[in-house]
Amino acid sequence: MTDKPGVETRFEQGLYASRWLMAPMYLGLAVSLGMLMVIFFKEMAYYLPQTLDMPADQAILAVLTLIDLSLAGNLLLIVLFSGYENFVSKFDFDTGTDRPAWMGKVDFSGLKMKLIASIVAISGIHLLKVFMSLGKGDPAHAASAETIRWMVIIHLTFVASGVLLALMDWLTSKAKEH
Fold it and tell me: In this predicted structure, what is the pLDDT of residue 103?
């Protein structure tokens, strides 16, 4: 067995170390999680004073908006933790029993599935909010038939993408078994 030349070894070490260039991006995602939190509380502050006078359908829309923001936050956390652990470095501190069960176990395939599932859920909530606002006579929030058509097409595209990704993962796992 021959040893690699020193230049090749240093080059490979440099490539391996370059994964740390992703660390500031994950820090940026943590900051964006803070931004989402501010928007969540801004929405909450907007809807809370209206609660007693709000009709049920508007209350549902308000709750869907908050759910949408929390799903986006969950999506950010999944990308932040899984991406960091899969591509940069493992978390090597004791998080105790508070550590989410999926942390350290979500590989790239699992990350893709969690991402597409979150995107489908977020898209579905947006679509539901548009459908619920139909016929309310509020021109500020009215969507045209063309906009709704494109929202449905985009949502179905996300759903189809998720099904196809799941199928590809299933086929890949079956191929590994043989």
Answer: 67
